[in-house]
Design brief:
Layout lengths: L5 H9 L8 H7 L11 E3 L8 E7 L5 E9 L6 E5 L5 E5 L4 E8 L2 E7 L8 E8 L6 E9 L13 H4 L10 H16 L10 E7 L4 E11 H6 L6 E6 L3 E3 L9 H4 L26 H8 L7 E6 L25 E2 L16 H10 L16 E6 L2 E4 L5 E5 L5 H10 L16 E4 L1 E2 L17 H11 L3 E5 L18 E6 L7 E2 L2 E2 L8 E4 L11
Parallel strand pairs: 14-16, 14-19, 15-16, 19-21, 21-22, 22-25
Antiparallel strand pairs: 1-8, 2-7, 3-6, 3-8, 4-5, 4-7, 9-11, 9-12, 10-11, 13-18, 13-20, 17-18, 23-24
Length: 529
Amino acid sequence: MLYLWIKFTILMKQLNFIDTVPKKIILTLILFNGMALADTSWDTGAYANNEDRSKVLSIVNATSLKVKISGNTEKNHDYFYIYDKNGNQLKKLHGNNINETFEIAGDYIRARLTTNHSVNHSGVNVQIEDRSSYDNRANNMLIRFANTSHNDHAIVNDSNVTGIPPIYSAPDPDLINNNIYRLEQDINQLVDTNDLVELTFIEHDAQFNTTRINLSKSVTHDVIHRLVLNDYVEYSEPNELIMGFEQDDSIGDQDDFVIDPELEFVNDPLYKDQWGLKGHGINLPEAQKFLDTDSGETIVAVIDTGFIRHEDLLDNMLKVAGSETDVYGYDFIDNDTNPIFATQKESHGTSVAGIIAAVGNNAKGIVGVDRRAKILPVRAIKIKAGPSGIIEKLIGSGGISPSAKAIIWASGGHINGVPDNKYPATVINLSFGAKRPCENPYAAPLGVYSTYGNAIKEAISRGATIIATTGNKSKSSTESPANCKGVIAVGATDLSEDRSLWDNEGSNYGNRTDVSAPGSNIMSLGKEW
């Protein structure tokens, strides 16, 4: 799994280049994916008589595609065809102002143009998009109703007395219930008669003004997204479990990974095994020369599982004022100011934080990418282990809302009922995601953002740089929130400078991947050390 993005981010921040992200500098610090992309579009251009041209368009591992076709041909003479993977003809188009959009199952189409009577027509353009996420199903969703607002919320605690920010109640329950009744009717218009659903209110989140609703049967994401087309719905989205991207921290054959020990650089004994910091990775010894020219520190929020007071990390974690051991942060699962566990029962957060900022030159363990970074630990996801003990899912209590709140809080934003963050993060790391678009595609013309989209937009407006993993499913697509606007999406590479692969899966890739960095056989703090 990818974690060594932080080298790039911190250096860019310290050089004041993060907003422009110069490509030449990026190339000197990290490894681009280098993955060849399949063609996803074809523009025939102007054509002549007696032509017969074709083009295969595909997206690896997609289960369904959206196909968009536009352009002009000579009616009744020049034709544009679409075939599926089995050679079945799906479309035969001709004439002026062709404008077709449709969806097909699979990962492949063949487009073909035949002409015999051209009169200087401009040709046809065809594009495909991965619609696999819309095949997913959910039985839990978040809805923001257009007829509720924060003005409807009553304050239920006195902040002058409690000393914490105000907590708001939900709007009028009758209003919410009436909305849910309408919603149930509208959903049942979109599903088969055998799949009719009943909706149940779960809770209303006054922070985001969203209502969480359970469905008696799962429906496709597309059904949930279409609800935004109703005038009483401002936005609608699946409230999915958040998939965890577990780290591959096995060391393997040491002879393969010990590359130029450089023992004079640091005295941490396991540095010799940290290949990702060396020449085939990010070349930390050279980059450190730039980092050492700035005496400032970078606050990096790691929004993840719980953390422990690890001896190779504690000095680089933010502390409660006046304490050398009490770590400053917040736990959005248990809703308290202590994200630290007494034992290593959830190692993911500690592992990520260690790669970023493990203490260097202390004759212990490993060295972090930036020894002067300060970690702001934020717990917003909870481990659920699979049968083998490997993390399958990281679950935010209530779905995606806790992690969205964590993003806002980490950047310095206000969260109802939570003490404000005294140390807003410069960089926010998100090593989790879900297979879904960031924004509701039907809401794009309306300028409506999703729960994640709103949180990320708010954090970026405060100056935070947000980094997220593209995902570990070997897909030519990007998980959410890495696919949200403004997020730097990072893929993973291995020692051979190829895309990282783990068993039957690997790093996601594609044109939404911004950069790639070492992500296989990466040592950190946790299970082994």
